[in-house]
């Protein structure tokens, strides 16, 4: 079949001729032959297919290969680019590709191909699973994502033929996923073009208005920019710095983001032009910086040295903002020619210059570390949409550089905490962390890190991740590791709770749980689509399945459920059930309170006081409400809220804290609201039961400055 396709494809399109001419400058003859073979094969496979632009379909894979040719990628990658759609859009199989072009080409094409033949419940599931597959393949060979980025770039260049709704969907996906991946891999030219095209189609009206405004401003500022350019060149020449200086207009999306983030109008964005200085070596970078500082004054706080501390994608440059003529801020980047090449081509620079450059090796090491972290997140995350969420978090890094006690530099996203730092070191360190020291001082684990912080993590062998960490961690790695640990622990606890809930439901129907045999269970598991009996029981505990419905489906066929008695048999709450039983923070139930249980999807059983407003709102949905009761001899403590109004006098808080401690209770949290004469204090305390709470309240009433004291309800 392959030979037939080749013989029927004698015509070479002009764009393909241009591609072959370009690659012949650095390809060997056998590599060029592989590329031509791939072209003819792809042309034959796509014969009769046309793009929405009206062009023959082969024009698209040729364009993708041409984009990658500009990065001077190897013959295997370009061949895979020419073939990247044959598995999706034709009857060609992976085995045929492997036989014809080798396993490497076939694996790359397969990695780029979507999961078209698998049915998904929603488009979101399909999108997430496609990204998951693509990134898994990328972790094995980064060239997969390079082909995919070139594919997306050409699709974005021809997006005008799509309907508006599809344009916005594809543009959003580009801005959220593909452009950040290009940035993460250091492919600056592809990154900037994807941003511009994404902005153009996602916000078409804003794009048009901003484009018109920049064109108008361009004429007004051309003379000023020319003067600045000449002044910079002259000053560098006087300082003996051999440099190439260029001026450039900032990209529209960059201007738009600055307007949004700083709430500026276009007329208030003065620095729409930037200047780039390219020099021979690193000492010349700093010499050029000094020369420019003697020409224009630097704006404090705007200098960034990415040469001493490179970005995670290998980017190196000096960034500075200077105050130019007429009060115009001038952004200047100073870098070497080698840094400029890596800045434009990123991880792809490896295939053009097969050198032993330390910069390239370091860049690939960092890229491999990122890909390895992706694999860890993949292994920790079973849900594709959850994985995509973690990926998006990691694709928008800030510039927070922190130090380990040994002096190693870690780059973390803006907003990262000590917990994120712990997981960045190692998953085991994160799972066992109990405290942190930042710059030698004790600090809470939720403390947000700042540039230059020196962080030390303290661990304990029996410590476990806290679910509360999920509310403030900033990295996908930390979030996925915490969820994986909690999910593993929670599953065993969920199975036990699900069994108790099901047994209660069966007993309420007058059925002895011991009479349910393996055949009935096998039938039910098969019909429900669950993976196993344990998985079904866990679903009951997490609210994904209702215990009453499962109990009815377990009834022996032929027996009428309506005739079965319904005696009440409440679930006993012991307080030791773990994460599958939660105590509502709206009403803080404690032993001694009359309680009810609400089954919430993905949360499990949530215990409320019977008079809680949340219960009143949901009582109509009786199938989600369970009868529960407290067990005997409960030894753990529970959170409870109290509020008090006190006279503003010195030492009142200390006396309140002393009385609480004397009553054998701990303070978990306290907030205060003050006016001129009185202060209202809100406490979260640890208490054993209602009797213990009453004892605490009696002790507090001895303090004469307390004018009002009550337990928090709702």
Task: Explain the overall architecture.
Residues 57-156 form the HD domain. Belongs to the relA/spoT family. This is Bifunctional (P)ppGpp synthetase II and guanosine-3',5'-bis pyrophosphate 3'-pyrophosphohydrolase. It comes from Nitrosomonas nitrosa. The structure is a single chain. The chain is an alpha+beta fold and 714 residues long. The protein folds into 4 domains: 2-204, Hypothetical protein af1432; 214-352, Beta Polymerase, domain 2, CATH 3.30.460; 483-630, no CATH class; 638-711, 2-Layer Sandwich (Alpha-Beta Plaits), CATH 3.30.70.260. The chain contains 28 helices and 20 strands. Strands 1, 2, 3, 4, 5 and 6 form a 6-stranded mixed β-sheet that branches. Strand 5 and strand 6 form a beta hairpin. Helix 18 (358-380) runs parallel beside helix 22 (476-508) and helix 22 packs across helix 24 (533-541). The protein is globular and about 85 Å long.
């Amino acid at each position: 079949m392959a030979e037939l396709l080749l013989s029927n494809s004698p015509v070479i399109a002009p764009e393909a001729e241009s591609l072959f001419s370009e690659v012949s400058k650095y390809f060997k003859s056998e590599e060029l032959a592989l590329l031509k073979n791939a072209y003819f094969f792809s042309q034959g496979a796509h014969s009769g297919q046309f793009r929405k632009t009206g062009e023959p379909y082969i024009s698209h894979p040729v364009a993708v290969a041409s984009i990658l040719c500009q990065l001077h990628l190897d013959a295997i990658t370009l061949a895979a680019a020419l073939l990247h759609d044959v598995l999706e859009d034709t009857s060609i199989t992976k085995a045929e590709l492997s036989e014809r072009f080798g396993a490497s080409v076939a694996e790359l094409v397969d990695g780029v191909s979507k999961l078209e033949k698998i049915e998904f419940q929603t488009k979101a599931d399909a999108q997430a699973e496609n990204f998951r597959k693509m990134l898994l393949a990328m972790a094995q060979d980064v060239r997969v994502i390079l082909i995919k980025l070139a594919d997306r770039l050409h699709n974005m260049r021809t997006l005008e033929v799509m309907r508006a709704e599809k344009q916005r969907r594809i543009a959003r996906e580009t801005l959220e996923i593909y452009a950040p991946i290009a940035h993460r891999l250091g492919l600056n030219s592809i990154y900037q073009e994807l941003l511009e095209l994404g902005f153009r189609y996602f916000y078409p009206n804003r794009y048009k208005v901003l484009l018109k405004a920049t064109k108008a401003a361009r004429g007004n500022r051309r003379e000023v920019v020319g003067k600045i350019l000449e002044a910079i060149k002259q000053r560098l020449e006087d300082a003996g710095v051999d440099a190439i200086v260029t001026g450039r207009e900032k990209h529209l999306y960059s201007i738009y983001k600055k307007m949004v983030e700083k709430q500026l109008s276009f007329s208030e964005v003065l620095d729409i032009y930037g200047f780039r200085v390219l020099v021979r070596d690193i000492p010349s970078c700093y010499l050029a910086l000094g020369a420019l500082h003697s020409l224009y004054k630097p704006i404090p706080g705007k200098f960034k040295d990415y040469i001493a501390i490179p970005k995670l994608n290998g980017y190196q440059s000096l960034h500075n903002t200077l105050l130019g003529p007429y009060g115009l801020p001038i952004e200047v980047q100073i870098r070497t020619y080698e840094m400029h090449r890596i800045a434009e081509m990123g991880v792809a620079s490896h295939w053009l210059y097969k050198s032993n450059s330390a910069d390239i090796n370091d860049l690939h090491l960092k890229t491999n570390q990122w890909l390895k972290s992706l694999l860890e997140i993949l292994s920790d995350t079973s849900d594709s949409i959850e994985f995509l969420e973690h990926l998006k978090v990691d694709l928008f890094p800030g510039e927070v550089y922190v130090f380990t006690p040994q002096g190693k530099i870690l780059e973390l996203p803006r907003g990262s905490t000590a917990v994120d730092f712990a997981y960045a070191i190692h998953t085991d360190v994160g799972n066992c962390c109990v405290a942190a020291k930042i710059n030698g001082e004790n600090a809470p684990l939720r403390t947000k890190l700042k540039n230059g912080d020196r962080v030390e993590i303290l661990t304990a062998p029996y410590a476990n991740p806290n679910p509360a960490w999920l509310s403030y961690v900033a990295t996908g790695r930390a979030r996925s590791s915490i969820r994986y640990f909690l999910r593993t622990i929670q599953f065993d606890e969920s199975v036990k709770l699900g069994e108790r809930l099901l047994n209660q439901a069966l007993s309420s129907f007058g059925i002895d749980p011991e009479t349910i045999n393996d055949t009935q269970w096998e039938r039910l598991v098969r019909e429900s689509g669950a993976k196993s009996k344990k998985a079904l029981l866990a679903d009951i505990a997490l609210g994904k399945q209702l215990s009453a419905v499962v109990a009815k489906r377990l009834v022996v066929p032929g027996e009428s459920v309506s005739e079965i008695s319904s005696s009440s048999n409440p679930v006993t709450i012991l307080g030791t059930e773990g994460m599958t039983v939660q105590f509502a923070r709206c009403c803080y139930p404690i032993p001694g309170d009359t309680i009810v249980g609400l089954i919430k999807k993905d949360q499990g059983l949530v215990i409320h006081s019977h008079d809680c407003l949340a219960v009143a709102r949901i009582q109509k949905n009786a199938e989600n409400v369970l009868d529960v009761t407290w067990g005997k001899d409960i030894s753990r403590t529970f959170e409870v809220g109290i509020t008090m109004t006190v006279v503003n006098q010195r030492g009142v808080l200390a006396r309140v804290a002393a009385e609480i401690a004397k009553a054998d209770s701990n303070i978990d949290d306290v907030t205060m609201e003050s006016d001129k004469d009185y202060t209202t204090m809100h406490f979260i305390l640890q208490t054993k039961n209602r009797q213990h709470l009453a004892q605490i309240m009696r002790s507090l009433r001895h303090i004469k400055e307390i004018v009002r004291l009550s337990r928090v309800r709702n």
